[in-house]
Amino acid sequence: xxxxxxxxxxxxxxGGSLRLSCEASSNIFTFYSMAWYxxxxxxxxxxxxxxxxxGIPSTTNYAGSVQGRFTxxxxxAKDTVYLQMNxxxxxDTAVYYCNAAAWRRNSExxxxxxxxxxxx
Length: 120
Prior knowledge:
29% of the residues are buried. The chain has strands spanning 4-7, 10-12, 18-24, 33-39, 46-52, 60-62, 70-75, 80-85, 94-101, 108-110, 114-118. A hairpin with a 4-residue loop joins β7 (70-75) and β8. The protein has 120 residues and is an all-beta fold. Strands 2, 4, 5, 6, 9, 10 and 11 form a seven-stranded mixed sheet that branches. The radius of gyration is 14 Å and the shape is globular.
């Protein structure tokens, strides 16, 4: 069974940058896709960025609120997916979760989350 471990969260000032990492316990290209979600206290979990990993070429999608500021990418050799976050805003504050979706419908795996706080 797949394990996902996120890292890289922390406290940053508005306008700053942060890179999140999600290391998988197996080859990420055996899955259909990987994604980053986020959830703030009292809010619903929302999709931030999505990338297909089960074939070439891959495709990406982003939430409108992060388009142009965040970039999702993968490193197959390291079985890792990244989320580069630039021009951070206070409203980006949330727990960020890594997600992997298998080819089988409704089969997903989740990391434990990493806290991102954007504040001056």
